[in-house]
Amino acid sequence: MIECVHVYKKYKNGVNALYDINFKVEQGEFVYIIGPTGSGKSTLIKLLDGEEIPTKGTVKVVGIDVGKLRHSKVPVYRRNIGVVFQDFKLLPTKTVFENISYALEVINLRKDLIRRRVREVMNLVGLDEKGNSFPRELSGGQQQRVAVARAIANRPKVLIADEPTGNLDPSMSDEIMALLEKINREYGTTILMVTHDLTIVNKHRKRTVVLEHGHIVADLAEGGYVQHDQ
Amino acid sequence: MISRIWRPIKEGFLGVFRHGSMSSSSCIAVTVTLGIISLFLLFSVNVGQFTQGIEQSVEISATVDYSYESAQQEDRISLAIQSIDGVDTVTYYTKDEEFQYYLDSFSSEETKEAFRPFEGENNPMHDTFYVTVKDGQDLEAAATAIQAIEGIDSVNFGGASAVKLMRVLRSIRFAGWFVALLTSLLAVLLISNTIKVTITARADEIAIMRNVGARNGFIRSPFVVEGIIIGALGAIIPVAVMIYLYRSLYEFTGGYLISQMFTLVPPDTILPYAVVILAGIGILVGLLGSFFSVTRYLRWKR
């Protein structure tokens, strides 16, 4: 599903973000990527969703070489993956319903099918009543659930979550985690979740890839975070 | 398929409505600039009309020397005048007709009686050709050319003052068009800049749309519709005000300023064109402004 082979990323301003990243995620896996600020987590996400191009190496997601995509084809590629961001990235002038249906309108799905699917995912994330609300009228946790609903509306094979609980308090974080686990379990969606929230990582144990200074320093199938000696 | 056409239109209207304050500031920019353009447009067209009116009313009178009054000589002179470049019409009056015309200009019989001795053999008038030119700019040249014809006694065309007035009107008209053009360019800059600012505020939105898989054209089309709507909305007020004010001016003045020489262009002749030009500028600039701004922000992030 996701494959990184000898991936290097060096930004134009000279900052080295990633060194020789190699890892593979199989279909149906739920994987954490953890690491401190500046370890290259965000860069890795950007490489996976096509926002950045690797300096060296190949990034393959659902069989597509993401780094080789033309600018105009990037959005089309993104229809294969769902992405959930820390800052939700909802369209402020669209209602909850419209935010979710937008992701389906872009693939020219029939109107009645869009309506049915939006109701389905709104039910899944537990926001049946909020269809006509605007994002600003919702709590952070609710907004993140809208973002999750939007990300999975299109039934993507891969869901990438970039610090989905970063802006939420612990109880809301648990809510989101439960939702992601449900999606992983019920739809078999491959989930890659970037986080620095150790409480979550230790509570919901899953395969964990540890990044530090742009290197993968551990890939633990058992999960849980191992504190290195400094 | 139908939704591909209707979606951008629906979304465009929705966008104008939901970004109310930004839409209205863009509309105001359009309104103000189109208002200024309409002023200079109407001004220039009317000054053009004045110039043309004066040019057409000015004619050259060329008198024939006494010793060239034979029909043969005058036919030759008439042909010579007609062959001059820019000459439009040539009308011939005999010295008797000229004298009668002069007499008729007096109302009292006594005065007319006093001129009786000059009738017939003693008529001091000349046979005269009245010449109009197609283009006022040719007036001086035509007059000089007529003067040069053998048998012409004197040439008169209202003189240097007529030429000067025409020159002044010409430069005013030129200046008017120049300012109209300049303000149009300014309008294009101002409107597209305002639209650019409103779209900049939505750069994040555009990036999000790409994030959820929207192709560039899918993102761009509602914005372009929005630009068109804003251009059209912004044109409504200046167009309405222009129609109302110009009609009022025309009715108030009776169709001319100061004298019949400065005839205004009738509203029904000029306004349809002016409306099309103003609305056209508004809509086109709205369309292009939003198109290019969105395109810029589409490239902003991958």
Architecture blueprint of SSEs:
The complex is a heterodimer of chains A (230) and B (302).
Chain A (H helix, E strand, L loop, with lengths): L1 E9 L5 E10 L4 E5 L6 H8 L7 E6 L2 E2 L8 H5 L2 E4 L11 H10 L5 H14 L15 H14 L4 E5 L7 H18 L2 E6 L2 H6 L3 E6 L2 E6 L10
Parallel strand pairs in A: 3-8, 3-9, 6-7, 7-8
Antiparallel strand pairs in A: 1-2, 1-4, 4-5, 9-10
Helix pairs in contact in A: 3-4, 3-5, 4-5, 5-6
Chain B lengths: L1 H17 L1 H38 L2 E5 L6 H12 L4 E7 L1 H10 L4 H6 L13 E6 L5 H9 L4 E5 L2 H42 L2 H9 L4 H38 L2 E2 L4 E2 L3 H32 L4
Antiparallel strand pairs in B: 1-3, 1-4, 2-3, 5-6
Helix pairs in contact in B: 1-9, 2-7, 2-9, 2-10, 7-10, 9-10
How much of the sequence lies in strands of chain A comes to 25-35%
CATH class call of the domain at 1-71 and 199-230 in chain A: Alpha Beta
Subunit organisation of the chains: heterodimer
Instruction: Give a short account of the largest sheet of chain B.
Output: 4 strands, antiparallel
Percent helix among the residues of chain A? 25-40%
Q: Can you tell me about this structure?
A:
The complex is a heterodimer of chains A (230) and B (302). Chain A contains 7 helices and 10 strands. Chain A has a domain at 1-71 and 199-230: P-loop containing nucleotide triphosphate hydrolases (Rossmann fold, 3-Layer(aba) Sandwich). In chain A, strands 6-7-8-3-9-10 form a 6-stranded mixed beta sheet, with helices on both faces. A 4-stranded antiparallel beta sheet of chain A has the order 2-1-4-5, covered by helices on one side. Chain A is globular, with a radius of gyration of 17 Å. The longest helix of chain A has 18 residues, at 170-187. Helices cover 33% and strands 26% of the residues of chain A. Chain B has 302 residues and is of the alpha+beta class. Chain B is built from 10 helices and 6 strands, in the order H-H-E-H-E-H-H-E-H-E-H-H-H-E-E-H. In chain B, helix 2 packs across helix 9 (216-253). Chain B starts with a helix and ends with a helix. The mean pLDDT of chain B is 84. Classes of the chains: A alpha/beta (230), B alpha+beta (302). At the A-B interface, helix 2 and helix 3 of A face helix 1 and helix 8 of B.
